[in-house]
């Protein structure tokens, strides 16, 4: 009779034990929709002294989010993901109502990772007990603002955006009480704002920044890419190409801001012109290109030797606004 060697038998047993552990985790993702239920579930890991990693999202998940979740699971035994479309970070004329909401697909994706312990799905009324009208004059309650780095770049076009992000992230940190948290480089200014928030409010949380995940053509993945047709996605790469050209210029030693930016503007202008000439039924419109100081986020007039820079920009593709950035000799 064919006998399995003990070592082989052992590894088969281990394989099944590991499979059954991971499928246990898969089946037991705890979906928690209220603050008390989340707090009570969280309690056990304090007693067990198990570290918790937290990935906040607005859902409509893609590879960028999933990559953050995988990184989170490499750092901590317990992984929490939140899905909450936060009204406070949307301007009155922005896309709060049409923002993609794909909860069951999101949960499927998270289950397939086999590493998520809980998905926190709070309700707007619980996060904002005083209500959250989008007009600032009508708002009541507590808001958090990280002064100095919230009003330039993204803050120019979206003046209340980082107030909304800072407020909701502080609330989520208070509820989830993570030891580690994971944000994506795609939203570079958001990373700087959250880092400052953690430090200024003395949250005992270590922040990690995951690299930007891109489509094959270079376009940064984003939930809002769902608003774009394949043709729009194709022309949207002008932003990434412009940023890459600026970064390459810096890499080759060019330090003159105007020369660096002019190369980026040329790329955007060419794409804008082509879209117009071909009469494609949408327009490209540049919001901004920036070469900024990684700490103050102020525009760099002189790019000094040894000083890094965040090269970033925003582009309207039809009515959809996309953002992207590249880092030169710096981290977030
Ligand atoms: N392409 C990406 N690569 C890495 N991280 C990303 C990427 N896109 C988003 N993230 C990160 O995922 C987290 C949740 O982001 P969010 O849910 O707003 O998704 P999004 O794709 O940025 O959506 P939106 O289209 O609204 O900007 C944030 O920390 C964000 O920086
Ligand atoms: C951090 C965040 C989840 C806050 O709503 C959001 O701004 C996002 O998804 O980047
Ligand atoms: N990722 C940032 C979310 C927003 O643009 O609203």
Protein described:
This protein has 332 residues and is of the alpha/beta class. The protein folds into two domains: 30-210, HUPs (Rossmann fold); 223-328, Pantoate--beta-alanine Ligase, Chain: A,domain 2. It has ten helices and nine strands. The chain has helices spanning 6-27, 35-47, 63-75, 103-113, 124-127, 154-157, 161-176, 188-200, 230-251, 257-277, and strands at residues 30-32, 52-57, 78-83, 118-120, 180-184, 206-210, 284-292, 309-317, 320-328. A six-stranded parallel beta sheet has the order 1-4-3-2-5-6, with helices on both faces. It has a three-stranded antiparallel beta sheet with strand order 7-8-9, with helices on one face. The longest helix is centred in the first third of the chain and has 22 residues, at 6-27. It is globular and about 60 Å long. Bound molecules: adenosine-5'-triphosphate, pantoate and beta-alanine. Residues 58, 89, 187 line the site of beta-alanine.
Keywords:
globular; binds beta-alanine; binds pantoate; binds adenosine-5'-triphosphate; 10 helices; 332 residues; nucleotide-binding; six-stranded parallel sheet; Rossmann fold; Pantoate--beta-alanine Ligase, Chain: A,domain 2; pantoate-beta-alanine ligase activity; 17% strand; 9 strands; Pantoate_ligase_C; alpha/beta
């Amino acid at each position: 009779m064919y006998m399995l060697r003990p070592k082989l038998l052992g590894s088969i047993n281990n394989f099944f034990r590991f499979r059954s552990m991971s499928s246990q985790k898969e089946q037991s993702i705890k979906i928690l929709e209220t603050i008390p239920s989340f707090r009570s579930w969280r309690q056990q890991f304090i007693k067990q002294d198990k570290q918790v990693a937290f990935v906040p999202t607005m859902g409509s998940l893609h590879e960028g989010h999933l990559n953050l979740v995988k990184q989170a699971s490499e750092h901590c035994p317990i992984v929490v993901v939140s899905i909450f479309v936060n009204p406070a970070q949307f301007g009155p004329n922005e896309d709060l109502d049409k923002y993609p909401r794909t909860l069951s697909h999101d949960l499927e994706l998270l289950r397939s990772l086999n590493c998520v312990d809980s998905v926190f799905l709070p309700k707007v009324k619980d996060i904002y007990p005083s209500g959250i009208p989008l007009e600032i004059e009508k708002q009541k309650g507590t808001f958090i603002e990280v002064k100095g780095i919230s009003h330039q770049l993204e803050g120019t076009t979206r003046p209340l955006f980082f107030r909304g992000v800072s407020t909701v992230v502080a609330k989520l940190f208070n509820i989830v009480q993570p030891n580690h948290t994971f944000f994506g480089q795609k939203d570079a200014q958001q990373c700087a704002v959250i880092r400052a928030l953690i430090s200024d409010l003395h949250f005992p949380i270590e922040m990690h920044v995951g690299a930007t995940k891109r489509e094959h053509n270079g376009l940064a993945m984003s939930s809002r890419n769902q608003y774009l047709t394949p043709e729009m996605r194709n022309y949207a790469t002008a932003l990434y190409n412009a940023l890459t050209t600026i970064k390459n210029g810096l890499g080759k030693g060019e330090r003159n801001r105007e020369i660096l930016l002019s190369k980026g503007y040329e790329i955007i202008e060419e794409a804008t012109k082509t879209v117009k000439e071909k009469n494609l039924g949408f327009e490209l419109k540049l919001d901004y290109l920036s070469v900024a100081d990684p700490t103050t986020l102020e525009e760099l007039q002189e790019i000094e030797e040894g000083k890094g820079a965040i090269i970033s920009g925003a582009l309207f593709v039809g009515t959809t606004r996309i953002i992207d950035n590249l880092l030169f000799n710096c981290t977030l």
